[in-house]
Amino acid sequence: MKNNILINKTIDELLKEYPFLEETFEENLIDMSDKTVSLGEALNKINEFDLEDRALTKEQISTLIENYVDQMSEILGLKENIIEKLTLLPGTDKSGNKENFEKLEILKGEILCIVGPTGSGKSRLLADIEWTAQGDTPTKRHILINDENVDTSHRLSSGNKMVAQLSQNMNFIMDLSVYEFLELHAASRMVEDKEEIINRIIENANNLAGEKFTLDTPVTSLSGGQSRALMISDTAILSSSPIVLIDEIENAGIDRKKALELLVGEEKIVLMATHDPLLALMGNKRIVINNGGIKNVIETSDDEKEIFLELEEMDKKIQDLRKDLRYGKKLKI
Ligand SMILES: Nc1ncnc2c1ncn2[C@@H]1O[C@H](COP(=O)(O)OP(=O)(O)OP(=O)(O)O)[C@@H](O)[C@H]1O
Q1: Ligand 1, pocket-test mutation among 95, 114, 123, most atoms within 8 A of CB
Q2: Is the shortest distance between the CB of 116 and ligand 1 below 6 Å?
Q3: Atom 3 (ligand 1): residue with closest C-alpha?
Q4: Does the C-beta of 93 come closer than 6 Å to ligand 1?
Q5: Which helix (H) or strand (E) holds 310?
Q6: CATH says 82-300 is which class?
Q7: Is residue 90 in contact with ligand 1, taking CB distance under 6 Å?
Q8: CA-to-CA separations, 137 to 42, 59, 124, 231, in angstroms, rounded
Q9: What are the residue ranges of helices labelled H in 113-239?
Q10: What phi, psi does 105 have (nearest 5°)?
Q11: 208 C-alpha to ligand 1 centroid (Å)
């Protein structure tokens, strides 16, 4: 079985996560009397005579279970939940030299920042991840999902995307209200509690943006900050994509710290290109890019976390001054 994640899980865990497997186990000689054993162990325990009788091999049974979980997850929209880890394997920089790392693993719930001078290749790295590069981009990098090479058939399909990209420009061209826009999106995701989800999205978006907007507001009249807040909240709450790529959350009147917390709170992997020290220090690690290649991966140190607290206070002061300025007040510290 190529999916080690399934084979190492216990029968109990598998039945809780994929209740539809019970019948499959029954039909395929998997003993469910002891649910604490792993699927791998249960497969090993199958009697050779029974296998011969059914003209099956253990490998065939494991492949059958794996394919079934894959298909059902796709149909039930569970697929996004099975991304636990993203792995980046080195390619080459712009001069053709191998990148300076062996393997970079990013786990669910982690924030990684990407830093480097203009033109150094930050957007390229985000694009490699979005494309789940298999040595077929200018950098020759490879991306693995859950330790496996990726089935690239998803690349051109529109539904169930693995990666959501929050780009710098959010231009709405549709003539819809915020409610209609969210309703369309909710319908395409077939969510059960549409109204509740829509309310949660707008509430969180308003929490990020300075000036409040309502469900009746036409999307075309949202300000830059408001539309960005709406897209971030929508991505965090409604998007099925487990990986979120952000090409700089600029300072356009949104609370950047809350935005990141919202995205990561929904158990996603977040990769963000940024030059903003406050955002960079919110990450667990940062990838340093130069001349198209990854030169270093730095873990955020305890000292840096202290700096983060200072920056947070400075940032709050600046935000307050900005607000006062907007509302025509005299500035004082
Ligand atoms: N390893 C590489 N090999 C070949 N070309 C590369 C490599 N990395 C990046 N490039 C190319 O270099 C150019 C600049 O890269 P990119 O746009 O990613 O930079 P950036 O750091 O995002 O810049 P900015 O901060 O200005 O947005 C792009 O054309 C990109 O395809």
Answers
A1: 123
A2: yes
A3: 94
A4: yes
A5: helix 302-326
A6: alpha beta
A7: no
A8: 41, 34, 9, 28
A9: 122-130, 178-188, 194-208, 224-238
A10: -105, 135
A11: 30
Q: What are the strands of the beta sheet with 293-299, ordered from one edge?
A: 163-166, 243-247, 269-273, 111-115, 285-290, 293-299
Cα–ligand 1 centroid distance for 148 (angstroms): 26
Gyration radius of the chain's alpha carbons = 23
Enumerate residues 6+ apart whose C-beta is below 8 A from 46. 29, 30, 31, 58, 61
Residue to probe by mutation, ligand 1, list 95, 115, 124, most atoms within 8 Å of CB: 124
Which residue, chain included where needed, has tokens 């549709």?
174
What is the identity of the amino acid at 183?
Answer: E
Q: How far is Cα 70 from Cα 279, in angstroms, rounded to an integer?
A: 36
Q: pLDDT tens per residue, the chain (333 residues)?
A: 445 678 889 999 998 888 888 888 998 999 999 999 999 999 999 999 999 998 889 999 999 998 888 777 766 655 545 678 899 999 999 999 999 999 999 988 888 999 999 999 999 999 999 888 999 999 999 999 888 887 766 665 544 567 777 755 555 566 789 998 888 878 767 677 889 999 999 999 999 887 899 999 998 888 888 888 888 888 888 877 788 888 777 666 677 888 888 887 767 888 989 888 888 898 889 999 999 999 999 999 999 999 999 998 998 888 888 888 888 999 987
The domain spans of the chain are 4-76, 82-300
Closest CA to 122 of 256, 259, 275: 275
Does the CB atom of residue 141 touch ligand 1 within 6 A? no
